[in-house]
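Weekly modeling sync, notes
Attendees: S.R. (lead), two postdocs, one rotation student

Agenda item 3: backlog of single-chain predictions. S.R. asked that every request posted to the team notebook include the full sequence so nobody has to chase files. The rotation student volunteered to paste the first one in as an example of the format we agreed on. Action items at the bottom.

Example entry:
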Amino acid sequence: MGQPVREYLLTLCVTAAVTYLLTGPVRKFAIAAGAMPEIRARDVHREPTPRLGGIAMFGGLCAGLLVASHLTNLKSVFETNEPRALLSGAALIWILGVLDDKWGVDALVKLGGQMIAAGVMVLQGLTILWIPIPGVGTVSLTPMQGTLLTVALVVITINAVNFVDGLDGLASGMVCIAAAAFFMYAYRMWFGYGIEAAAPATLFSVVLMGMCLGFLPHNMHPARIFMGDSGSMLIGLVMAAGAVSVTGQVDPDLLNVKAGGLREATHAMVPVYIPLLLPLTVIAVPVADLLLAIVRRTWQGQSPFAADRGHLHHRLLEIGHSHSRAVLIMYFWSALIAFGAVAYSANNASMWIVLGIVLLSAVGLVLLLLPRFTPRAPRWAERMVPPRYRRLARAVVDPAGAAAEAAASAAAEEGAEGEREPLPAGINGATAIGDRSRFVDRYRAGSHH
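Predicted structure, as returned to the notebook:
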């Protein structure tokens, strides 16, 4: 098992490195191409930010698949049509997303493009052939049923990821968490039970993790670039492709044979249901938000599709959580659901798993109730964390004199800012010249009032 792990790590690192290195040039290209839409009333960010981050993520996807195709234990995956099907569907959805990020595409046109991308993958063999139903057993699907179910799963996952992309680093982080949990599940299916049909899903989840990890440093708050629809729809399709691959290609009867006795087979069947549930780990939070939004807007006499600032991440900000804390809280809940589902499927002591999830849920509720609490890193780790998490250095001068000096410097800085004229955005973006906070204040004062 050591050699496959090293090959997966190499694929992960190459995908993340290519995505990370491409994001900088893509940001400059997006600014030059004018892919910096105006700030809407429901947006959280306060300055124009370029999109088209999906271009770098697609480059990382291609690089990861190319490297994996030359590795000893992973090149067997490319003897099937599934990697080709994934790349074909990803290219179509990526082109559609790039067009939407630059010029805007109608919602119905995007929905049609998503269905076409899913249909292309189905035509090349990436489809659901059977589904396990508790109490009934394995149910084989007709080609029409498999096509409809596959297209529905792909479209729902794509739009769920697109819907959750509302805060800096939120969508890429949540998808990365779900991909890590999915990798643990698929890897156990392949090397734990010896089912080679789970190999494509294992590879897809590793590449997806690399895409998200490589893009996150550029997208964490304050974000220098957004992934846009070209990125959110792309990672949603890759995640859906992994779920479809496992659900459609792994024969539950084969899993029963590999597991051994009746009791072991019954417990082993639990992971087979996970492909039907694991994509919901990233969908659960946005779907709950979507249902609440529909009820809220309908109750207020508005259209269910009318945009507002009542989403979950908006509410976290309103009750006092910072931008970064709101994202970390949603990371917490996604990780709790995803890894809890995988742990429940892999451990016979399921009651302890349930108790652990309940305990962690209580911790999450406590974090929600402490929006004003700001954690501080220990002094030995201060250089490795952002300044807002560092302890204030003890003043060695007279406190009264230090306070007077600080007040004078603040007044001087405020007066200097009042004399400056706003600078236009250059090729390096609105935040490339001068201090970021000054641009935020000037933009808020000049554009929003």
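Discussion: group reviewed the output briefly. Confidence is low (pLDDT under 50) at residues 261-269, 393-406, 408-444.
Action items: rotation student to repeat for the remaining queue; S.R. to check formatting next week.
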